[in-house]
Amino acid sequence: MKKKLLIIAGLCAVLLVGCGNATLIDTNYTYDRAIIKLANDEIIEVKVKQWCDYDGEQIQITAEDGTIYLTNSFRCDLIKEK
Fold it and tell me: Would the N or C end of the chain have less CB density within 10 A of its end CB?
């Protein structure tokens, strides 16, 4: 019984990872820049000092100049430079 559960869990993990370029565990937590679409449809680019995500789709970004942006993850791209 344990062997069947292990096989099923392994197949589920493979299927989840096999969808696009997703990873099972995302370990990238640092970003350099953010491109944010504001409510007035203006698009800005800021250097990220720190960021935080909340339950759901909200992201809070603190820019290097101290400005804090609370936005939806659909309106923001976080970028990590190489």
Answer: C
Answering whether pTM is above 0.70, one says no
- Residues with Cβ within 8 Å of 64's Cβ and at least 6 positions away in sequence, in order, are 46, 47, 48, 49
List the beta bridge partners of residue 14. none
Q: How far is Cα 33 from Cα 80, in angstroms, rounded to an integer?
A: 7
Task: Give the span between the Cα atoms of 33 and 64, in whole angstroms.
Answer: 10
**Model pLDDT for residues 7-37, shown as the tens digit of each residue:** 888 776 666 555 444 455 666 678 999 999 9
